[in-house]
Amino acid sequence: MKKGISKKPLDSASVCGHEDPAAVRELLTKVGDKWSIFLILSLAQLPGGRARFSELEKAIPGISQRMLTVTVRSLERDGLLTRELFAEVPLRVEYELTALGRSLLPPMWGLVDWVKENWQQVKESRTEFDAR
Fold it and tell me: In the CATH hierarchy, which fold is given to the domain comprising 20-131?
């Protein structure tokens, strides 16, 4: 190490650039969860940007009814989507992204694009690693 230059230890606030690293971790865990990503991207692509529960269930491969319920409630609680009830028989409920939820789309599409561009390289690395 050069004289006069001290190497400062890395702390969690400097890693994420936020004074509350726990908040960053919590939200990244929530919006980075596979069901949240698929739900947000599905809502963005469905006609009118709105969907009924059954439409979301069909649009998200492999999600259970329980997991979809948990995910929409969690995203609604965080202000990322809204749930609108229509007083009809039978009762109709539709979900839609809020402005805050829509603001997640560019980074999410960026991640999806990154996966599309790099998936083959990741698969090759896995095969190489597993062969050792």
Answer: Arc Repressor Mutant, subunit A (1.10.10)
